[in-house]
From TrEMBL:
<keyword id="KW-0732">Signal</keyword>
<comment type="similarity">
    <text>Belongs to the pectinacetylesterase family.</text>
</comment>
<dbReference type="GO" id="GO:0071555">
    <property type="term" value="P:cell wall organization"/>
</dbReference>
<feature type="signal peptide">
    <location>
        <begin position="1"/>
        <end position="33"/>
    </location>
</feature>
<dbReference type="Pfam" id="PF03283">
    <property type="entry name" value="PAE"/>
</dbReference>
<protein>
    <recommendedName>
        <fullName>Pectin acetylesterase</fullName>
        <ecNumber>3.1.1.-</ecNumber>
    </recommendedName>
</protein>
<dbReference type="GO" id="GO:0016787">
    <property type="term" value="F:hydrolase activity"/>
</dbReference>
<comment type="function">
    <text>Hydrolyzes acetyl esters in homogalacturonan regions of pectin. In type I primary cell wall, galacturonic acid residues of pectin can be acetylated at the O-2 and O-3 positions. Decreasing the degree of acetylation of pectin gels in vitro alters their physical properties.</text>
</comment>
<keyword id="KW-0134">Cell wall</keyword>
<keyword id="KW-0964">Secreted</keyword>
<keyword id="KW-0961">Cell wall biogenesis/degradation</keyword>
<dbReference type="InterPro" id="IPR004963">
    <property type="entry name" value="PAE/NOTUM"/>
</dbReference>
<keyword id="KW-0378">Hydrolase</keyword>
Length: 219
């Protein structure tokens, strides 16, 4: 009888511990969901008039979460990745996706990792101005051409998109930056490699510019 009581008590304790663990995990998951930083998309004003457009002709876009306090004059610019399109056919297909048209992009994007505003997760950059530059030209923010096939047009205007985004960000405080980190992964890593010197030249004498090109080689 005593052994049965011990086993029953142990089972009850184990069940209670399991309930507490599950409840704690659920609460943590809920808290994590509540703390997600969702940032609205900004379409670059006037970009289309300069020919800075996505593959389908829609305007380029970015997400900006403004810095504060000691990080107010720090800027982290991150290129979105997503491979390349390699010819007219693949670029035409890409133009019908969020990697070729801002009209198909999510209007809100989650900022995490280097873009997070959580000092525990992102102690170096959490209070900087953090920007995610959306990728829609299919060539790592390079190129300045177009392909016409009858009534359809595919625009490869990555260089103009880069110029338009940076020009707009200059008006929003980038021109007064003290520290700037340009970064990106995959196709975004290549974009970082391509545009690092240009950004440094634009901010020469004003800001310290560093570039981090992550995994820029891809098949």
């Amino acid at each position: 009888m005593a052994r049965r009581r011990v086993r029953t008590w142990a089972a009850a304790v184990a069940t209670g511990v399991l309930v507490v663990v599950v409840a704690t995990a659920s609460a943590a998951a809920a808290a994590g969901a509540e703390e997600k930083l969702m940032v609205e998309m900004t379409l670059v004003p006037g970009a289309a008039s300069t020919g800075a457009v996505c593959l389908d002709g829609s305007p380029p876009a970015y997400h900006l979460h403004q810095g504060s306090g000691a990080g107010a004059r720090g800027w982290l610019l991150q290129f979105e990745g997503g491979g390349w399109c390699n010819d007219a056919r693949s670029c035409a297909q890409r133009a019908r996706t969020s990697l070729g048209s801002s009209s198909l992009m999510n209007k809100l994007d989650t900022f995490s990792g280097l873009l997070s505003n959580d000092p525990a997760m992102n102690p170096d950059f959490y209070n900087w101005n953090r920007v995610k530059m959306r990728y829609c030209d299919g060539g790592s923010f390079t190129g300045n051409s177009e392909f016409r096939n009858g009534s359809s047009v595919i625009y490869m205007r990555g260089q103009r998109i880069w110029d338009a985004i940076i020009t707009d960000l200059f008006q929003k405080g980038l021109a007064k930056a003290e520290k700037v980190l340009l970064s990106g992964c995959s196709a975004g890593g290549l974009a970082t490699f391509f545009h690092c010197d240009d950004l440094e030249e634009r901010l020469r004498g004003t800001a310290m510019v560093k570039c981090m090109s992550d995994a820029r080689v891809f098949p």
